[in-house]
Design goal:
Layout (H helix, E strand, L loop, with lengths): L2 H5 L3 H8 L3 H5 L3 H33 L2 H4 L4 H42 L7 H7 L15 H19 L2
C-alpha cells in the first residue's frame, strides 16, 4: 500500500483503512466484518465512480484516453487502496464464515444424534393414536383417472404425428 496516498486521505478514510489490519479484524465477529466490508466497498465505489466520471470528461478535452490517463491519478490511487483493504476484509470474512459454518454443522449433527427429528417409532405412534373409533381411509381411484388421462394425451400426440 502506498503510504503517500494513505497519508493524503482524510482522517475518517485513513481510520477506515486502519480497521482492516490483521490485529484489528481478529476481534471482529462475522456480522461486524460484514458491516466493515460494506463500508469499505462504499468508499471504494466512491473513488472508482469519481475516477471514471473525471476520466470520461477529460477524454474529450485532451483528445484521447491515453492523454487523459495521468490527470486523474489521485482518485485511481485511492480506489486501489480501498480495493486492497476490501480484499483483506473479504479474506478474513471467508475464514470466519467457514468457521461459523463448521460450528453450525457440528451443532446440527449433535442435535440429530441426541434426538432424531425423523420418523416416529411404531410404539410412539400407537401411544399417540386416538382411542375409540378406528379411522377409516377414503377410497380413492388410486391414480386410475390420472393414468387414463396421461394415456389419452399420449394417444392424441401420436395421432397428431401420424396425421402429418
Amino acid at each position: 500500500m502506498d503510504r503517500a496516498v494513505l497519508n493524503s486521505m482524510p482522517d475518517a478514510e485513513r481510520m477506515l483503512v486502519a480497521e482492516t489490519d490483521r490485529e484489528a479484524m481478529a476481534e471482529l465477529d462475522e456480522d461486524e466484518l460484514l458491516e466493515l466490508h460494506q463500508r469499505i466497498r462504499r468508499a471504494r465505489t466512491k473513488y472508482v465512480k469519481n475516477y471514471r466520471r473525471a476520466a470520461s470528461a477529460s477524454v474529450a478535452q485532451r483528445g484521447g484516453r491515453g492523454k487523459s490517463f495521468p490527470t486523474n491519478q489521485r482518485d485511481r490511487d485511492r480506489a486501489e487502496v480501498f480495493e486492497e483493504a476490501l480484499a483483506r476484509v473479504s479474506r478474513r470474512l471467508g475464514v470466519v464464515a467457514g468457521e461459523s459454518a463448521k460450528a453450525l454443522k457440528a451443532e446440527r449433527l449433535a442435535t440429530a444424534r441426541a434426538g432424531s427429528a425423523g420418523p416416529e417409532t411404531a410404539a410412539a405412534r400407537a401411544a399417540s393414536a386416538p382411542r375409540g373409533r378406528a379411522r377409516t381411509t377414503r377410497k380413492t381411484t388410486g391414480g386410475v383417472k390420472k393414468d387414463a388421462s396421461t394415456r389419452s394425451q399420449g394417444a392424441r400426440r401420436q395421432a397428431k404425428r401420424d396425421a402429418r
